[in-house]
Amino acid sequence: MKEDLKPLLDNLLNDSSFRNWATKSNKNDMAFWNSWINKNPRDIETIYAVKDIILGISFKKKTIEEERVNEKLGMVLKHINGKTGAENQIVKKNIGWSVKGIAAIAVIGLAFLVLTLGVFNTSDVMVHKTAFGETMSLTLPDGTSVVLNGNSEIRYDKDTPRDVVLKGEAYFKVKPKHTTDAKFWVNTQDLRVEVYGTQFHVNTRDEKTKVLLDEGSIKLLLNNGASKKMEPGELVSYSDGNDTVLHEKVDTTLKYALWREGTFTFNNINLKEMMKYIEHTYGLPSEFLDKSAETKILTGGIPSGNLEICLMAVQKATGTRIVQKDNTLLIFNK
């Protein structure tokens, strides 16, 4: 710590109101220090360093869900040796310095490895995944084009490639089957999309599913048993959790994020909602130190392919300052 920063650091450590701000235990103190930070942005690193000292530095461990590990491990074991479920249990339990033990360790290592790859494939299932900040263009076996946004996943059984499961966000350009009129299905946690041949966007973020139809015709089969046909330019949002359906007509060239072309394009969207796209794309949540900044409006295109350039464009368009502290984007007015 530089010498000229020591007095500030010492004062903050001994200031009870600052401690209340750091621990979020007093609203008046929180409002005061958020305002102080807005007026003294050059001291933000010291501010948050002291906050870390007060709260105690904790490291977030990246864990893998046990259920997911077991699922992948079982699929790998089945694919590699075709053994029965009972035999697989024996292999998993007998990990020692024996031929079987070494083989089991290698298999478990492979199971963890495939969790980090963009494509996982067994004799039955194909999975395509993207990391934060990554997009992926792919063509399914039936000729359908798909663009996956960051932190998204699509999977399908090789025997039924026109019946896919989506987590995250994707844009589909479904290839029609004129000879058989075969349908194409997209399944999410809230609904099932019935398609013959068309272009549409599906987003499963924020505990709901949004479907935007660009052209053609699709039908939604909601988990509550209802169904709805959609027309081009219509956006439907449905959450199975609260059983609510919202739909509206939109300008598809401006209203919705055209992330698949490397640009966020918006029409009269507030900054708080815009930052949700940043979070989903790059995995960085935001915190507004000045609440008035949440309602600033954006219209136009923001580059989405590079986080630094994206944030510079947002700051210029909204007259705000955005600082990344650890894994959070702090936002305040200039």
The low-confidence parts are: 57-64, 83-103, 113-117
What is the total number of structural domains? 4
Q: Which structural class fits the helix and strand makeup?
A: alpha+beta
β-strand amount: 25-35%
CATH architecture name of the largest domain: Sandwich
Radius of gyration: 25 Å
CATH class of the largest domain: Mainly Beta
Number of strands: 20
- The string of secondary-structure elements, in order, is HHHHHHHEEEEEEEEEEEEEEEEHEEHEE
Q: Largest sheet at a glance?
A: 8 strands, mixed
Order of strands in the sheet with the most strands? 1-2-5-6-8-9-12-13
Number of helices: 9
Question: What is the rounded distance between the termini?
Answer: 26 Å
Mean pLDDT: 76
Helix content: 25-40%
Q: What is CATH's topology name of the largest domain?
A: Jelly Rolls
What global shape is seen? elongated
Secondary structure layout plus pairing:
Layout: H1 6-13, H2 16-23, H3 27-39, H4 44-55, H5 66-81, H6 85-93, H7 99-115, E1 119-121, E2 125-129, E3 136-139, E4 145-148, E5 153-157, E6 163-167, E7 169-173, E8 184-187, E9 191-195, E10 199-203, E11 209-215, E12 218-222, E13 227-230, E14 234-239, E15 244-249, E16 263-270, H8 271-282, E17 286-288, E18 297-303, H9 307-318, E19 320-325, E20 328-333
Parallel strand pairs: 6-8, 17-20
Antiparallel strand pairs: 1-2, 2-5, 3-4, 4-7, 5-6, 7-10, 8-9, 9-12, 10-11, 11-14, 12-13, 14-15, 16-18, 19-20
